[in-house]
TrEMBL record:
<dbReference type="Pfam" id="PF22978">
    <property type="entry name" value="HAD_Pex22"/>
</dbReference>
<dbReference type="InterPro" id="IPR037485">
    <property type="entry name" value="PEX22"/>
</dbReference>
<protein>
    <submittedName>
        <fullName>Uncharacterized protein</fullName>
    </submittedName>
</protein>
<feature type="signal peptide">
    <location>
        <begin position="1"/>
        <end position="24"/>
    </location>
</feature>
<keyword id="KW-0732">Signal</keyword>
<dbReference type="GO" id="GO:0007031">
    <property type="term" value="P:peroxisome organization"/>
</dbReference>
Amino acid sequence: AGAASMALIDAIHWLSANRPLVAAILLLILASLLLRPQKPHAQASANGASASGARGVRKPSKKESVSVCTVGTVLEWGDDGQVLLLSDGIRALLALSAHANVYLITTLRRDSDDEEATVLAALRAAGVFDEGRCDERKALFCATEDGRGAMGRQLNLGAHIEASATVARYLAPHVPLVVLVRSERAEQPDCGAALVVSSFSKYVFGMRGVEMGGSSSSSQG
């Protein structure tokens, strides 16, 4: 290595004396080789591993969004203004909320903050707003069926579950799937709904095929 270095130095001296331009070019080439920064192999490898890991992770599928008319499906109003929860309806709602993004639309007997608070308290006590269930911020209120229909249309979701043939008829042209919950004893309505069922729970557990889950709750609030 020492002899080679001496030979290189002698060659550079000779070129400097006889071929200064060639010597200058060689010196520039040597300088560029010595000063060239090394490639960040470690960083590139880390980035490659990160990208590979990202490709291997499957993003969770987006939940379907559904609006539910609560009166007649999961609750009823008592004569004294109390909220009566329907146990089968609550069980179905808890199961549905594990698979869908649920908006709750409650029609109040009158436009009242107290009635809103009563409904929210009853649903909260039933576990409807527990983690992984319905989002309390998506609990909506109105004072008339017309208001409920307007909300259902404005939300523009994939499906709406309804207890009124009038609202179902209004929403049918605007919502991809309108499900009308109707008692088996009631006359079959000509409401334009794509699906008429005898109960909310029959739709969730039977036609949607959602597995039984969530706690059953029946209380007054």
